[in-house]
Amino acid sequence: MRVLHHMLKMINIMILPLLLTPTVFAADPTDEFLRAEIAKTKAPGVSIAIIKDGKTIKSAGFGFANLETRTPATEETVYELASVTKQFTAAAVLLLAGDGKLSLDDPLSKFVPDVPDAWKPVTVRQLLNHTSGIFSLTALPDYFNPTTIRRDYPPKELIKLVADRPLEFPPGSKFSYSNTGYTLLGLVIESASGKTYADFLA
User: Fold this and answer.
1) Minimum mean pLDDT among 18-27, 28-37, 140-149: which range?
2) Could you give the residue numbers annotated as active site?
3) What is the pLDDT of residue 16?
């Protein structure tokens, strides 16, 4: 019994320092890189996913999703993409054109019949390359006030904001960046595909 007691005492003496020593984990180089980039670029925050062989091996958020409310960014954060969506909208239109569901020279009215008469002959191509002459909703004087900019408008409600504005120039004659044009293209995609914009892109 004395031998057993002595052995247990020795084991405790050996284990106790291990329990009291703080565990040191190797720093994740991805985390270090992202934190450094956020500090360097003054970016509010970022969410990432690293996928290898079809499996997510890391997902995380860094910084803030909302500076005003100090909401931390997480792997679940949904961000407003704004005009980044235009490239996906354009690609979706070209996919539909490739499938014969529309032609770039089709008039807008073929897909969205309830638009102002002046907009009806505008072509899909002119919407894509910002030569439609349709007034851009973001050029409205009060568009960027907090009440307007934070509201989630259905596309048709957004279009109503500028429906009474005359064309800025004859379609195809000039270039002018138009967010209204890409809102209309979203409706063209829905009409031509028979799916919602989100479902078609997915």
Assistant:
1) 18-27
2) 83
3) 45
